Structures
1.
Amino acid sequence: MGALIELDDVTRAYDTGTARAALTNLRLQIEEGDFAAVMGPSGSGKSTLLNLVAGLDRPTSGRVVVDGCEVGRMSESALARFRRRRVGFVFQFFNLLPSLTVLENILLPAQLAWSRPAAAAARARELLERLGIQEVAARYPARLSGGQQQRVAIARALINTPRVLLADEPTGALDSSAGAEVMRLLQDLHGEGQTVVLVTHDAKLATRHARRVISLLDGRLLDDTRLAVTTADPQDLVRVTGREVAG
Amino acid sequence: MRALLTKALADLRRRRLQSAVVLVIVFLASGTATLALTLMAQNSSPYDRAFQTQHGAHLIVWFDATLVTRQQAAATGSLVGASAVGGPWSQSNITYGLGTAKQSTNLLARDDPGGPVSQLRVVAGRWASGPGEIVLTRSFADAYGLRVGDTVRDVALAARPRLRVVGEVVDIDEGTAELTSQTSWVTEDAFPRLAMATGLAYQVEYRFPGTPDAAELSRAIDRLKASLPPTAVTGSLTYLTVRTVFGITNAILTNVLLAFSVFALGASAAIVVNLIAGIVLAGYREIGIMKAVGYTPAQVVAVLDLEMLAPAAAGALLGVAGGTLLSQPLLEQSAHALGLPPEVSYSPVLDLAALAAILALVAVAATLPALRAGRLHPVRAIAVGAAPAASGGLWLRRVLGGRAPRPLAFGLGEAFARPLRGTLTVLAVLLGVATVTFAVGSHASLDRSLASFTHAGRAQVQVTRQPAYPDESVTATLDAQPETARVVGIDGTTVTVSGLADPVTTFGYRGDSSSLGFFIISGRWFQGPNEAVAPRALLRDAHLAIGDTFLASNAGRSVRVRIVGETYDIRNLGHTLHVDWSTYEQLQPDPAPTTYFVTLGPGADAAAYARRVAATEPDFLDVQLTNAQTFTPVQIIDAVTLTLAVVLALIAAAGVFNTVLLTTREQARDTAILKALGMTPAQVLTMVLASAGALAGLGGLLGAPAGVAVYHVLTALLQDATGNDVPPQTLDVFTPLQLVAVPVAGLVVAMAAAALPGQWSARTSVVQVLHAE
């Protein structure tokens, strides 16, 4: 498969007074259908990477191309349309709008994209069922558990059938059981062909569920490892098939 | 204390924009309030000062020179218990030819501007010393562009004598040329050559101990009448009337300014409440931390108060100074007319009181919402971080959610998410729209009122003849013009009305006077002999109602007249009488109109007509277009009302700006999420504008009728000051288009004010906001 996401010599520096950029000369490709986990310690640049891919941020230099769109060259409006149609974003702290019900939260990106109401409603129902949250559709986020809220966030991210699902520490605010549920869900979605890019600092989660682990350190690519899962126990046994990249 | 100041100053630096909003609105509101208070307190001051300095007359009486001798007139002082008497001075009339216009004044024979009563202050040139010299009032000279050294002609006399203006004086016993008739002075030996053949009188001026009231002065006139031959007293004027006339413009302005100062201060208080409420709602964590480090609840409140009071104090200082300065030209107008030297007229005590009152208002407005911060539990406040999300507009979002585009539904819902904030913003817009509505109505009303005197729209040309030129000639000239469609001739005299001490200026109309567009407040216009209409002040003072009859007397003739209607006339503060020509003929010997209002046929060129008629007798005819007449007090009131409308509109815009700023900052996280989900900058802007538009729309919807209501109340007050009831024609002044256009303009201004914070919100980086979260 071809590269769905391509970062070409990307640097992202912030005007924070520190000499180091959040990302420095990063080159990376993620293929369609991949499940990539981006790992690294705090401040390594993994969230910056995700924000650039999501079109929430622009590179200081270099190119970020997602599904053929060069993110850095797009206008704000074009970026918004890009986010709406091509990207689904799952946040660590869910970021559901508290004043909307679960169903309304899920429908929101479809409404912003001017989708036909009937089609959007059908897709929302399908997602509610698929994610097992149909019984809470009329509830407000504040009345849901963390796991349920994150499922709603995933459903919202998927409502417009994005080319890539981006998840920033999706289990970071959940207990281990709810976190495992969410990860299984992402894995299932990947199994159905969804491209997933996950940011996490939990190596165990990354290696258990992702097919590729991209490690960052101080804004630079430290390691890019492709994992193969054995048929015997896909949760625990992995075989390294990737290559090491000189840091 | 240091901790309070440190925190408050830090917050001021951080919230510079909000501080600037407070400074501006308090500046505007306090400026308006100070202007009103200064005018109110100082309005009568210039007149009172001049009255004392010049030994003004408490009462002026005119005696018919054919019925009373000079000695008899001179002896009247003791009859009424006067402490000093001025005159008797011989009195006649003089008419100046001023280009194409003619103007008449009283003409008095007086050798000396000094004396025990009514000293005349010579403010330019000198007093007249012989024949061929004349002295004018400064007000008259200013109004008609005359200066010392100019030569004028008395065009009412066949000889048209030339006179040189040798001096300008200020006479404390007459109003300004804009509002009252004026006097000119010549020496005693010059007088006989200039006096008219008829209507000669003696003018006597009285000064009483203390400050007599209207009833005492009325009793003095009654005593004079009782002791002299009937109709010997032809007219009188009290210092109370003169004082009212001097201050009428400022008195009217004071009413308007005071009302709108309350509006401006109310709107400012609403904005301050909104600001502090917003700061508290968004700053739970910070307030919790303040308490955790040792701030008492009172200190937390004090910090928030200081945040408002510091910019408010700066704004109030500027506003009080600005309002005081702005009042000076208006007060100086009176002082100038009175010949007083330019003098800064203000009260430091009043200014300090205004400053204190405005700061107290801001302190109360800030403290009320700040008390919530004082009551917050520190641990909970830190844990929660900010106030729970607003839920007031959920119902609206729900209703609109399925029907309107999402940004619109979000924006409209957000408008009512915080009911207090929404209500206060609606209030600010309401006050702004109400003020503009008032200004629109006031302008139209003043125009209509003015037109009821100039008869603009009903008659196109006004012709005034000099007594030397006969009525028959004028009538023949006008009838000879093919464009002449209708002519109404008017003459005036003074008539004694039973039950009233002062003679009443009475106008008789020859022709279809009902076509001139006089306002009828109740009853009807006169239709035949022995019917009259009058303004409220006359009816009130003479205890007359529609249907009542009274005895009108003049020159030894008496007629019973029935009041058939109440009209509108601000001349003599509502003391005028209007009758038809047949009634007038019964009261006035050999009457003839002196003024003619001409209505032209369709398509006629009024200017060409006026030039043609004027050319038939350049010296004796004054021909003017009715729509060319202006009136300085009306222009001043119009200008002040317009300024007030702009001030209130600015305050309302600041209120909307402030609310949108608070809301967008409070909603920054939600907006960032929406942007992350694909909301475009244009949609964010739409959302913000929809929120502001909903509040402004509601404010405008309520503001227009509120403005109409305020207009009705203030118009009644203003008309009351002129001795009139409110003519229905001046109430029904709003067109449907205006009543729609003003709220729509309010909506546009509000949305323009919201556009800036809306754009900031649209441009804010999603990453930065969510990262900060």
Note: Chain B has a mean pLDDT of 85.
2.
Amino acid sequence: MKTIRFHDALRQVAQSLQRLQLPAEHPVRVVRDLYGRLRFAVNCDIADFPAPAREALEAEQAKLGPYATSAELLFRDSFSNPDKFFDQPNWLRTSVPMVNDGDGEPFPTLEILLLDRMVTGQDWLQPMHADGKHPHRVVFYGLKGGVGRSTALCMVAWGLARQGKRVLLVDFDLESPGLSGLILPVERTAEFGVTDWLVEDGVNQSESLLQDMVSISPVGGPTQGDVRVAAAMGQKESDYLAKLARAYADVPSEHGPQRLGERLRRMVLALEQREKPDVVLIDSRAGLHDLAAAAITGLADTALLFATDGEQTWQGYRQLFMHWQLRPTVVREVRERLAIVRALTPKSDREGGVKRFQRKAYELFAETLYDTIPQGTALNEAEADYYHPIEADEAAPHFPILVDWDERFQEFNPSLRAEQGGVTDAQVDATFGALIQWVSQRLQEEQV
Amino acid sequence: MSATGPVVVSYFESARRHFHDAGVLLNGSRPANAGQLFGIAAECGIKAILVASQVPVVTDGSIDRPLGVKGKGFKEHWPQLGQALTDLAGAIPDGRTATTYLSLIPNLAHFSDWLVEHRYWRDVALPLASVGRWQAAATEVMAALDQAKEDGRL
């Protein structure tokens, strides 16, 4: 008998639900547990569900072997508070792609209502609902590190401060705390950092920390605005790893446990209320990490996705986008916040390289996050009913914002003047001008 | 306890049963026994979480006494059970699972004035003003069990 693997199991239950004659008045849902095992759930008491249908589902569940959570189906009677389970927002209509038939043709994708319980990464599927009451938040994210993300953030902060903006930087890169080093001399770093806030929040005393978490960066010094920084780590830190090891814990509250994403959102809101910035720039951790999920899905009004033209980068972004693609409601919430940044653009064959990058970015978005327009749809109808920008659309998420490769920024110290080996304003504009301009434009559009 | 008999103990089922019956008694204006059952329900629920966290059980399914521990260990009643959870945290094999679900129950201290011996007490001597708090804490335990069920750990 063929061994059932993780991805086979979900296909198998989707096919079972399509094949079985089940009572329409009690739609059957699917729960995937922390280990990837599955079971069926029905929002009625067991006594109200026809016995033959229950037995058929039990038989299908048993066929999952090690990928069945147990023999038991879930009904309302399985829970003390069934409404909390069945009415939670984590139930998502989820597409389940099928394998190919004998002729290599794919079977049609099926859709199920799935509650996907994960050990980590839950925040990728919980988009923030814009409430319009906070300053614009721009998240700087790179799937891979080393693409100049933090340097770009520093330059955008300077560029916005030059326009008179009050800028707040928040460092979410807790496992590589470096933003503060780039933008703040050590002696000017505040006493506490984001990691301290998370630890103190665990014992319910984060409120009193806020006043000692933010410092003023010299980057904003010569400008009309200012740049303030909430660093990952405080100034006189002596036990950072011990704190980091506890920072991601769920914290109990009156309304149930608060997960990392919710806690970070609360922290950013509190910082915004205290500092009253015009714009918040968040340095996200690289990789497919919970901190990135919290930043991109849970906080960003705009998420700048830094990328170089490498296969690893495209594969990683594809996996992330496909994770969203399977949940249409999540895709619709997330895709228009995204913007690809072509980082470290090489000078040689610049035009050709940018064109190739743009094509790959377009293909990636078109195959995952943009709507598929059925053949034969009239152009005006397609524009009205489907979100699918054309490749040349400069305002589209896939259209790359260019940051050039410039060795002067490799070991860059923003506090040095040009004659000390630092860089001039013109050099900053030459490399980061397009990105600064793009972010400024996005902020203006927001105000309108 | 049988040394070789079938598994007859289910802390999860007994927690749900006692909690349900406590509610029935409370609605029937029988707070004294309702209070006793809320405490028992919470004890059973905690033990269900401990079993899900790989605390060893004997053949009938009931929790074993941790090796080298004096006293009843996790077989204590309230309020000593609360202290055992703190003192013996290191004896829970899957501490991460236990922490995940115990952190959903912030008010276990509500059982500080609950005693299993209350069942022998005179009506007027019982701390009936505490029944509401015992109910609240037991409700948190039930919510933690619901979550463990959703997660596939029960």
Note: The interface with chain B takes residues 31, 33-35, 37, 39, 69, 74, 78-81, 84-85, 115, 117, 249-252, 256-257 of chain A (CB under 8 Å).
